[in-house]
Automatic annotation (TrEMBL):
Keyword vocabulary terms for this entry: Amino-acid biosynthesis, Hydrolase, Magnesium, Metal-binding, Serine biosynthesis
Keyword Magnesium: yes
Gene Ontology terms: cellular component: cytoplasm
Record protein name field: Phosphoserine phosphatase
Cofactors (names): Mg(2+)
Alphabetized PANTHER family for the sequence: PHOSPHOSERINE PHOSPHATASE
GO molecular function, one term: L-phosphoserine phosphatase activity
Length: 266
């Protein structure tokens, strides 16, 4: 039997009901809404203008807000780091979907609730230099900050707490556990579990809050693909440089101080 209702994740000493969407909303948010935002290449000047007038800024987490890749750290902690890394390399060369790749890697790791909690307590993720100051400055300007990750909710919520970001602004994948704490899968209904999930989350946010200027910041191709519906994308290479992103991003930075400086000059 799975903890609480199907799809619940054990968080701390309580049960957390995962973020849910109304019947059919995934399809609406994932396809119909996305078509409302025409694809358009913004210039560097336009991207900077959008950033400085943003209603919301969305950050990827792994290798962007934090230095590590969460699933790799979890795999190493559970003793299957090399095997999962090899699986990731093979998956990147094929046409496997994000959900299929996540299913396969988690099936190999099979983390228990206790292992996840111990990873967070004994080996907490390290914040990327400058992110704390940037998020604080955005909050001072009244900008909503969201964390959108293909990683795991429990780890991302820990990161959010370090940055004073409310858990309601966290979108990530939820692990499921049986009552004895053993791994029971992950919540496949989450938008972040799907290919193109980050864009679907942003489309949902724009629909829900009527944001006019939404910025996506991240290191990877999945972050870049979230624009549109994001109004602009800023590539980040402070931890890992992805060649494709560096070449295609109109605004590519390697330190968050570059964004702080842009805000201070306005």
């Amino acid at each position: 039997m799975i903890l609480g209702k199907t799809g619940c994740e054990k968080g701390g000493n309580s049960f957390i009901t995962p973020r849910s969407f109304a019947a059919g909303e995934t399809t609406t948010t994932g396809s119909t809404i996305l078509r409302k935002f025409p694809k358009r290449m913004a210039s560097l000047m336009e991207i900077k203008e959008i950033f400085c007038n943003a209603d919301a800024v969305c950050f990827d987490v792994d290798s962007t807000v934090i230095k590590e890749e969460g699933i790799d750290e979890l795999a190493k902690f559970c003793g299957v780091g090399d095997a999962v890394a090899e699986m990731t390399r093979r998956a990147m060369g094929g046409s496997v979907t994000f959900k299929a790749a996540l299913t396969a890697r988690l099936g190999l790791i099979r983390p228990s609730w206790e292992q996840v909690q111990k990873l967070i307590s004994d080996h907490p993720p390290h914040l990327t230099p400058g992110i704390r100051e940037l998020v604080s400055r955005l909050h001072q300007r009244g900008v909503q900050v969201f964390l959108i990750s293909g990683g795991f909710q429990s780890i991302v919520e820990h990161v959010a707490s370090q940055l004073n970001i409310p858990t309601a602004n966290v979108f990530a994948n939820r692990l499921k556990f049986y009552f004895n704490g053993e791994y029971a899968g992950f919540d496949e209904t989450q938008l972040t579990a799907e290919s193109g999930g980050k864009g679907k989350v942003i489309a949902h946010l724009k629909e829900q809050f009527s944001f006019k200027n939404v910025v996506m910041i991240g290191d990877g191709a999945t972050d870049m693909e979230a624009c549109p519906p994001a109004d602009c994308f800023i590539g980040f290479g402070g931890n890992v440089i992805r060649k494709q992103v560096k070449e295609k991003a109109k605004w590519y930075i390697t330190h968050f101080d570059e964004l702080l400086k842009e805000l201070e000059e306005r």
